[in-house]
Amino acid sequence: MRAVDGRIWLILPAVSLLAVAFLVPVGWLLSRAFTFPEPGLQNFALLWERPVYMRVMMNTLIISAIVTPVTVLLAFPVAHLMAHGSARLRRWLVFLVLVPFWTSLLVRAFATAILLQRHGVINSFLIGFGLVEEPLPLLYNMTGLLAGCVQVLLPFVIFPLYSSMARIDPGYMRAAATLGAPPVRAFLRVYLPLTLPGLVTGATLVFISTLGYYIIPALLGGARQQMIAQLIQDQIAAFGNWGVAGALSLVLLAITGAMVALLHVTVGLKEIAR
Amino acid sequence: MSADGMTPWRLLRGTLVIMVAVFLLAPLAVVVIISFSSAPFLQFPPPGFSLRWYGVLFSTPAWTNALWVSVQLMVPSSIAATVLGTAASYGLVRGRVPGARLITACLMLPIIVPGMITAAALFGIYRGLGLNGTLTGLIIGHTVLHIPYVVAVVSSALRVQDVQLEQAAATLGAPPWATFRHITLPLIMPAVMSSLLIAMILSFDELIVSLFVSSARVRPVAVQMWSNLLGDFDPTIAAIASVCFLFALLVMAADLALRPGRTLRIG
Amino acid sequence: MSMTTRRTVLAGAAALPLSARAQGAMDLKGTTVVFASWGGAYQDAEKVSYCEPFAKATGATVVQDGPMNVAKFRAMASSGTPDWDVVDITGGFLEVAAKDGLLEKIDPKLVTLSRIEPRFVHEYGVGCIVWSYNLGYSTTAFPNGAPTTWADLFDLKKFPGKRTVLDQPVASLEVALLADGVAPDKLYPLDVDRAFKKLDQIKGQTVFWTTNSQSQQLFVDREVVAGIILNGRVYDAAQKGAKIALSWEQNIQAVDYLVVPKGSKNRDAAMRLIDTMTVAENQAKVANLIAYSPTNIEAYKTIEPKLEPWLCTTPENTKKGFIMSQLYWRDHLKDLTERWTAWKLA
User: Fold this and answer.
1) What pLDDT band is residue A4 in, cutting at 50, 70 and 90?
2) Which of helix, strand or coil describes residue C119?
3) Which residues make Cβ contacts (< 8 Å) with residue B48, sequence separation at least 6?
4) Gyration radius of chain A over CA positions
5) Less Cβ crowding at N or C end of chain B, within 10 Å?
6) What pLDDT, in 10s, does the model give residues B103-132?
7) Residue C143, preceding bond cis, omega within 30 degrees?
8) pLDDT for C74-122, tens place per residue?
9) Distance between CA atoms of A161 and A178, rounded to whole angstroms?
10) What is the C-alpha to C-alpha distance for residues A250 and A33, in angstroms, rounded to an integer?
């Protein structure tokens, strides 16, 4: 019964479009890492010789590694409430999560800056109520960047996570309770593992999306929040150096692939057992 | 989860959700308030009330054109991405495709490859095909860019989905398409719908590929905003952002009104 | 060849076609010229001041495009069939683009180069506006006297508060050296180590800006009290009521050029559009609209007097400042950008 069926053809449209409109043109551009300005590996050698590139790459990975768990942690209660609350509440939550996105990202980033700045709403509130004496540095640093990224990326975790949670058979949790497991234990040992597929999907999306950001860091981050996408852009725009840009992109791709594979192998194994 | 009242966990959950809500809505409130500002800067709180930015918005063809282009771009591209992505997900998760892992990884590439590379690559290939400055070129670009998100979300839902239901239908003699239409699709519909909405939002905000492929006549809102950002900007961009927000509100409200018993097809 | 002789020769060479053109106007009907620039109010000003008079006189259609994007420009110019015919680019990019073979040579038969100050004329581009990096400061933060020199920018004791600096080594390094006492004519080649050491003094207090709007916004929001900002931004902000002013001491001037990408199929029409830009009245229009300085000194005859304090090419402000070395940056931008990135991360 489990023969290869016609379903395999379903992947054809997406794959063909991807091949023609993405793999070929991008592949050609990236291949210039090996051919521009001359054939050889000197572009990669350059990345090795100049420590600044790998440092920024490392910085980018660290930033992604910080943004991801924060986003997941904040997404979790929302997805949980969506999955287990009333239908009416679910509707409002969907509304809450999606509607802000219809206002452009750029404008919201500026609005976030306005809220976080030293004379902004948040600091005025904190100082006004005597909670702090000096304005808190919430902007042009990691905090500002986090605020910007998390805002944008929450739906990418909330929806897959909700998808998983909605499918969890309440029977499991009831069984755990019946067997005498305290709620925390039941949650950690039964519920959480069952949300893993959605959680891993969401976390992966957030992680790899953050790697490519440069506008949000420019608007909300500080000098230390430099990310690799800006450098790649500089190489192309300011220097016309398609070779180094391609090399940087390939390195980024390789690292990302490795990290995602690692994530799926360590965390995703449990879902294969189903 | 237990059905009793307010446990400490429920309190914690509720508090966190409210914090997230404030976090998501506060910038939005700021944007809307600033759109009515009388000051020519993004100043908060605004010094006075004025409708002039809405006046500028509706009297400047560049903005109204940009809005129309954005709509014409995000609707087809998100639908295409969702259809292609859902089909691909189904084929990859349920069909026995050799190298499914590799193909899935390839389908994810548009998210990982830096946007500028994709943009420059598309720009280059479009020149030969005359697709630069065209809506078609933009739609193709956006579809390709957003398929990975659909594949990620829908595959995840499919894997969680119990395959036995489909097998049962097949055993009872249902042809594959019927099984899909009547069993699988309704069950993964929440995931499909949310990926459609995600693709639409991403298309609306997409800047870098649009920047390369668009021209002065075919220019979506994101590029128009960026163009203003480089020069000077004033609350007109807050006005247009508020208009878009209002549009989204109306769509949601319409859905609520027309289908009182169900949610926005998320679940 | 002396300056005057060169001008006479150019004028002579340009004389005949110009007069012929003056008689046979409307000869470009049916031609479409694509003009690309930086968007916003600036491009609107260029449209009104250069493109519309050109279209009116020749019958050509001018289409506005943009925003200018260096990567996009490179991609189209290196392909040989650019979509843009006339492009407004920065002086820094001009040198690089010329070196990389991305531009058409300016045709002196079609463009009246004699109208433009010689220091703003390049083989591959004609200067259209001059702008400068100035010391901008908040007018409310310093009741006991405002900062005036770059050294004041680094004096956190006398002028406390946060600073803003453009997120690039260009001009920032020059500012640091000037603040450290180096004279403008001894600046190049830049003593980079010394510049970064000086910048370390304010690094902890600095917010880096990337878009022009950000630079204004930072002052309006009172996030910073002083910084490196473009003169046009300060003018614009002050006009709108922001409490910001600038100092002309040691202003660092830069030029924007109109160029024609290599392979443009409307090369001749493009050159003639550039020629329209050189006309004094048109340059004055731009200045009156957005306070960027003309490259044709005759323009000052029709520029509103209230604008003069804001313009870099007035004799007074020209004396106080100097033009940044485009050639130096052509050769060192890559390395210094890497160093800048590393410095920021440290």
Assistant:
1) low
2) helix
3) B37, B38, B39
4) 23
5) N
6) 888 998 998 898 889 998 998 888 888 888
7) no
8) 988 988 889 899 999 999 899 999 999 999 999 999 999 999 999 999 9
9) 26
10) 8
> Of the candidates C96, C334, C345, which has its C-beta nearest A59's C-beta?
C345
Across the interface, whether the CB atoms of B232 and C64 are under 8 A apart is answered no
Q: Which residue type occupies B8?
A: P
The token pair that represents C303 in the structure block: 């520029």
pLDDT digits (tens, 9 = 90+) for B175-205: 877 877 888 888 888 888 888 988 988 898 8
Beta-carbon contacts of residue A68 (< 8 Å; ≥ 6 apart): A203, A206, A207, A210
Across chain B, what does the average pLDDT equal? 85
Chain position carrying tokens 């559009």: C273
CB contact under 8 A, B231 and C40: yes
| Distant-in-sequence contacts of A259-264, Cβ < 8 A, 24+ apart | A259/A61, A259/A207, A260/A204, A260/A207, A260/A208, A260/B108, A263/A200, A263/A203, A263/A204, A263/A207, A264/A200, A264/A204
Strand partners of residue C230? C133
Mapped onto helix, strand or coil, the DSSP state of residue C34 is: strand
Question: What domain range includes position A197?
Answer: 31-100+153-272
Higher pLDDT, B43 or A272: B43
The answer to whether B73 and A169 are in contact (CB under 8 A) is no
CA–CA min distance A46, chain B (Å): 19
Secondary structure, 3-state, B26-49: HHHHHHHHHHCECCCCCCCCCCCE
Query: Does an H or E element contain C256, and which?
Result: strand C244-259
Question: Residue C148: is its pLDDT beyond 70?
Answer: yes
A20 occurs within a structural domain: no
**Is the confidence at residue A18, as pLDDT, over 90?**
yes
Task: State the fold for domain B61-233.
Answer: MetI-like fold (1.10.3720)
Measured CA to CA, the distance from residue B161 to residue B172 in angstroms comes to: 19
A110 touches chain C (CB under 8 A): yes
- CATH code of the domain covering residue A85: 1.10.3720.10
Which two tokens mark C216? 């204004």
DSSP B207-234: -HHHHHH--SSS--HHHHHHHHHHS---
Interface contact C214, partner A, CB < 8 A: yes
How many structural domains compose chain A? 1
Model pTM score: 0.86
- Whether the bond between B27 and the residue before it is cis, its omega within 30 degrees of 0, is no
Please name the residues between 115 and 174 in chain A that touch chain C, using a CB distance below 8 Å. 117-120, 139-140
Report the alpha-carbon distance of residue C324 to residue C28 in Å, rounded: 38
The answer to whether the Cβ–Cβ distance between A10 and B27 falls below 8 Å is no
At C258, phi and psi to the nearest 5?
-95, 130
Residue A125 lies in a domain: no
CATH class, range C3-130+255-315: alpha beta
- Tell me the DSSP string of A34-72: HHSSSSSSHHHHHHHH-HHHHHHHHHHHHHHHHHHHHHH
> Is the CB of C236 less than 8 angstroms away from the CB of B232?
yes
Strand partners, C293: C130
Residues A175-223 have pLDDT tens digits of: 888 888 888 888 888 888 888 888 988 999 999 999 988 889 988 998 8
Within this chain, domains C3-130+255-315 and C131-253+319-345 share the same CATH topology: yes
Q: Is the residue at A77 inside a domain?
A: yes
C131-253+319-345: CATH topology: D-Maltodextrin-Binding Protein; domain 2 (3.40.190)
Three-class HEC string of B56-110: HHHHCHHHHHHHHHHHHHHHHHHHHHHHHHHHHHHHHHHCCCCCHHHHHHHHHHH
Q: Are A117 and C221 in contact (CB under 8 A)?
A: yes
* Coil vs helix vs strand at C245: strand
Domain definitions of chain C by residue range: 3-130+255-315, 131-253+319-345
Domain boundaries, chain B: 61-233
